[in-house]
Amino acid sequence: MRQNDTIKKIVENAMIAAVYFVICLVSGSLAYDQIQFRIAELFVLFCFWRRDFIFGVTVGCLLANAMSTLGPIDMAVGTVLTLVSCILVAYTPKLLIACIWPIAFNAFGVAAELYFLLDLPYWVNVLWVGIGEATVILGSYILWMILWRNKGFMRFLDPVRKANPSW
């Protein structure tokens, strides 16, 4: 890889991390706590197209979780959940199937975190966090099904995968 390509990838990942963080910051309590609707999670599906974006999404999540009321524990647990989701999304052959990972990991993982730290009911949290994550991820899926047909956008994104991501 040439030096210019490396710098370009670092800058792209820094932009993703910054935008993820800002979206969470602006959306305030919607991005945290029991009823989560973390719009920035739409970036998780970027990893389907470009595996190097795992870094940017994970760093963005780490920065966002630094603002969480759960503090360092959320920085560790929440960020690991996002990292694992991003890795699985990146290596899953179909985009719709890849949507399962962030929904499942966040629903069950964040619910466990809320249960142990705040003594909130586990299965209720699985439901609420899962609904929020599913809404964002499935909305992101629909957006990607539209965007992957846009040659200009895909040229700009420079994806590793070129094939139809649907079933």
Describe this structure in words.
The chain has helices at 3-27, 46-49, 53-65, 72-91, 95-98, 100-118, 122-147, 151-157. The chain contains 8 helices and no strands. With 167 residues, the protein is an all-alpha fold. The chain starts with a helix and ends in a 10-residue tail after the last helix. The mean pLDDT is 91. The chain has one domain.
Please give the radius of gyration in angstroms.
16 Å
Helix content: over 70%
Q: What share of the residues does DSSP label as strand, in percent?
A: under 5%
**Spans of at least 5 consecutive residues with low confidence:** none
Largest beta-sheet characterization: none
Question: What is the H/E string?
Answer: HHHHHHHH
Principal-axis shape: globular
Structural class: mainly alpha
Look at the structure and give the mean pLDDT. Answer: 91
Helix tally equals 8
End-to-end distance, in Å?
Answer: 32 Å
What's the number of extended β-strand segments? 0
In the residues, how many domains can be counted?
A: 1
Descriptors:
71% helix, 167 residues, globular, mainly alpha, 8 helices
What's a concise summary of this model?
By secondary structure, the protein is mainly alpha-helical. It has helices spanning 3-27, 46-49, 53-65, 72-91, 95-98, 100-118, 122-147, 151-157.
Chart the SSEs and their pairings:
Blueprint: H1 3-27, H2 46-49, H3 53-65, H4 72-91, H5 95-98, H6 100-118, H7 122-147, H8 151-157
